[in-house]
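Hi there. Long-time user, first ticket. I'm pasting a complex I've been working with (about 1391 residues overall). I'd like to know whether the download I got is complete or cut off, because the file seemed smaller than I expected. Thanks.
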Amino acid sequence: MLKRNVQQRHRVVQVITKFLIPMILLFAFYVQFHGDFGAGGGFQAGVIFASVFILHGLIFGEARTRLVLTPNALRILMSLGLLLYAGTGVVSLFLGGNYLDYSVLLSDPISGQHWGIFSVELGVGITVAAVMVSLFYCFSSKRNFVGHISHPISESELDSDG
Amino acid sequence: MVEWLAFYNDWAVIVIMMAGFYIMIARYNLVKKIIGLSIFQTGIFYFYVGLGKVDNGTAPIFLEPKVIDESAANVASGIAEQTILYSNPLPHVLILTAIVVGVATMALGLALIVRIYEKYGSIEEDDIQAIDSQFICQLDDKK
Amino acid sequence: MFFNNHFSVLLVVLPLMAAPICVILRSSKASWLVALISNLVIVLLSLSLLSHVINGNVVRYELGGWAAPTGIEYYIDGINAILISVVSIISLATLVYSKQSIRKEIAQPRHYLFYAGWLLCLTGLLGILITGDAFNVFVFLEISSLSMYMLIALGRERRQALVAAFRYLILGSIGASFILLGIGFLYAATGTLNMSDIAERLPLVNGSRTVIVGFSFITIGLLIKTAMFPVFSWLPNAYQFAPSAVSSFLAGTATKVSLYIFLRFFYHVFGTDYSFGNLLLGNILLPLAVVGFFVMSVVAVFQTDIRRVLAYSSIAQIGYIFAAISMATEQGLTAGIIHIINHAFIKTALFISVGCILYRYGTANINQLGGIMKSMPWTCAAFIIAGLSLIGVPLTAGFVSKWYLISAAIDSGWWLIAAMILMSSLMAIIYIGRIVEVFCFKNSEAEGVAKVKEAPFSMLLPLWFLIIVSVYTGINGDVVVDLAKFSATQLLDNLPGLNNPVGNPL
Amino acid sequence: MSELLSTPVHPLVFFMIGAILIGFLPAKRDKVASLITVAIPVVSFISLLQWQQGSFGFYQLLGLELTLIKADGLSLLFAYLFHLAAFIAGIYAFHINDRLQQVASLLYVGSALGAVFAGDWITLFIFWELLALTSVMLILSRRTEASYRSSMRYLVIQVLSGVLLFSGALMVAHQTGTAAITTLILNTDIFSINTGYDVAIWLIFLAYGIKCGFPLFHSWIADAYPQATPTGAIFLISITTKVAIYALARSFAGTDLLVTIGLVMACFPILFAILENDLRRVLAYSIISQIGFMVCAIGVGTEMAINGAVATAFNHVIYKSLLMMSMGAVLLRVGHVNGSDLAGLYRSMPKTAILSIVGALSISTPLFAGFVSKAIIMSEMLKAGYTTGWLLLLFAAAGVFLASGIKAPFFAFFGKSSDLRVKEAPTNMLLAMSIAAVFCVAIGVFPSILYSILPHPIDYSPYDVTHVVTQLQLLFFSGFAFVWLNRKNLYPPELRSRNLDIDWFYRKLFPKNWERVCYFSQLSYQSFVLMSTKMINRVVTGLAKYSHPDAVLGRAWSINGMLLSLLCVLLFVLFFNYSQ
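Hi, the file is complete. Here it is re-exported in full:
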């Protein structure tokens, strides 16, 4: 009941949010992929990306956001981002360079650098976004401080690797 | 006096850090302690940011030499022909990492506080201390 | 042993990649297996690294192919190679032990998080040891600390564990912040973050106040991280309430790695002459160390929880190490390094044996553990041997380190310090003797003691492995001593470099 | 291969193997375990007989060249002695089924052997500490509250001795660059000590002194031995102090100070022994007195005197364990050995009684073991010119005979008959006692057996007229005094407790001053002990006040406390660094 009331009360905000979400997402992608040309990068993009879901959660209720992006998916995304980051370095190891030496990724060192940075930043972005959303889930699910905590909180320390 | 003021940057750092430190000592509320910690760390971030600042420096964005020439021709003043004076970007990069670490610390701290509140019913440190020592006393009584 | 330069970076990358794999797999058993295998590989890599470094080589690895002062450089000489091996071996042993032990301490669905946190902690610790970049030290320090806070918070007595973790978090973050600040000052003074580079440039700005301030802040930060006497108070609770596997792991590694940072900064980066000649760091450390090992030994005597006894004794042992370090002589440094290594093994073994007792009895309170020698002979025997080693009884590792400690003190003409070290080892006899006496001679109060079985094999295996290591190093102390001497001379000859190889001690 | 065979096996190896065997024996095989404890000394002894003198087993530790075995006449004699003692004590302890005790006693003897063969301070220290750790098990295994307490005191004192030895050895090794055990010269002029080397020698001297029971350090002997198990006590009295005597003889022969110390040691325990009620404690005091003789002889330091000291040690082990064994048998059968409550046991335990009389006579009667060795010490004292010392030793000899030789057997087996009816001692105990008694008599009658194994060549005949007559006179007088005083009820009575009863007071017409001297010296000693105990207690409670789990240092600090301490360090470090 409560949920419906809330939704009804914030109808205007909800509609506007629906318009905003794709734009913010787009902006996040811009910041992400433009990172090696101008200002931007994985950290910022990740946070912007996560802000979409946080906004969604604030407006539509956290329960609905959980359906969109399940904690399980977050867990895997978080790990995959980190793996992507570390994996890029390992690939460059296999290609004969030092760890994280992107020049060897492709035959052309410059585009190698480009793709290296690209994938590393992507990894960072994914991890940061996932961690931010899961932080939001953690705290918002505890409004009443009762019952068992469904999702462990302590993953937050993962983002120190970003 | 003027000499002292010339280091306004460092004074600000000291004030911010000590404010944070004071909050951590003076307040029993765990959330306020975390806030204090955060302020304390912010002081350090500020210090790093100040390190990179170069007088009259611009943003450290790499421009094509050609572009530099053109802009130099256009602006004509301020910037010498082949060089641009830019702020040192390294401290900023460093502090970005430190900020992320700070966020992680804060998140973990808050998460712990939530848990502590669940278990103790309070986030005042003196209450927690009292509950813990009571618990020990009970154990002793049982023996 | 086969060695490749890339091994150094793999030491960090392997646990870093294994951690997310654990999170993805999510099953308790699978993530344990992942952690174990990656740790096993790390041990092999670290041993190969050690055998390479011990021949007088210094490993320098440029991350991302960027040359040293610009890019991040990994820098490995004697002291880090030794500690990398120690940390990875201890981690492997405790990991084997943890499989059974966390069953009773942590809820099944959280196991994968435990292992992920563990691997991240290992990443951080190894990263600190490997990196040659001052700022990178801070980053890795925070990675390891954050995962430690989380691991501690998983503890058995949930309530106190949370508070202990929170307190550690506040104090640890302040410590790390001080280190960060100090590094900032160093950067301001020298314009570089590469440690060897800083070391080269510091003499140019030696008198600078900036350097003094940076020096002071790094000192304080590291004092907190190493749990030195007046700022030790995060440690006892953290060790007591953490899951037993975690406290075993931390006891062996966390403070030791911080001690390594200490050695690296004050002997290498600032240089022995500057730290102990110009600024008299020894005069700060020595009084704190002496008061520390004395007072903390006394406090340990009066504790009722065995884990707390061990925690306070850890602080006392850190006092010994600091006393040795503050001599700033080759003997002192050697003694300090020997004690770092030996104490790491001994303390881990002690905590593991307490963990075994905890596993079967559910308590580590001395008063409730009368006569358990009968039901858990292997565990208690291990505890006794490790305890004797902690006291410094001959033919154990502890004796070797005490011997060098006292010899170094006497060589420096510090008779009084030598006498006090001996006196406080009498205290160690009391606090270990008290526990051993309860184990062997007191009658049990708790019912059903007879029914309790010996700890499972998978817990005893790492325990006895560590015991054998420490007894072996006690009987044939030369291995550890040579390693320590080698790395001490390397640290003291500022910047040994490749052009100045030190002879092979083995 | 032949080389391997000719390399001597360290006796410790046998004892360790024995201990391990016993440790892993199935629970029910008690007799086998006892058999092992008896067999190991025999096996080890046979292997020992093959030994040549010399040094073996060099090893490197901590950068020093160490020698595991350095066998010469002195160490071999003590090794034989310990084997004999272990053998007798093993038979005596045949009936027990306490694995802890058996393992501990084997390791104890093994480490004593390790100590006497040690060629350097470090090896000596290792075995010195092992000796302490294993012997404390023998006391602990009585498993009573009192024995626990005294074992802890014992351990602290023994470990302290070890620590002193260690520090001294360390300093000597640093000064001289070698850790080999050598003769040391003690700088007795305390005010002129200014080198570390002198301090080091004093430390070693003190370490030996504690183990040996020097005056003021002697309390552990009287404290711990009577608390040990009946069987464990036999091991204890035979070994710990003898190792110390060995070490003194090795390093401090000829130190004048030792003569004084020895005389004090020989005389003062007699006072305590006379007043003591617990008969095992009486024997413990008389051990101190006997050690005083040996210390005196070492102080004299001539080859002959060392021979005398060693021979006395040898005999002392045999006859004192014989006496102790008889008391142990009483303890086993009656449950206590308080002189006030025992009497007339000779009717129930005739064999034990006779054997204990042999032990008593062996203290210094001609034709028994003690006489032939003490006579050497006496004559050497005279030769070296210590006339007063000689007189004092004579007095002590008589006193010891009076206090332990007559008193212990008398109060236990004779005296007013009581209703105590118990069984005779077990066969194994009787056997052990008989073996000891045979040795007592054999050595007394044929002293050349003993003389032939002494470290220095000897040409001495104890049975000349002067010696025998002097000794006999003294003994008869002391015996006569005891009998007469006892008949007249003048001998200090055996009191159940230390509270003097009005009832007994008027009977004490025994020379009043003598009685008072005895009484007050014991009283003052006790009050000294009491006072120091009180002080220690106060310190401990003071420490506990700040460091138990709820107190300032022991409890968890709040974040504020942590940060304030951090602030102090911060200010301290900043100020310190900045002020330079």
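A couple of notes from our side: The first helix of chain A runs from residue 2 to 9. Chain A has a mean pLDDT of 79.
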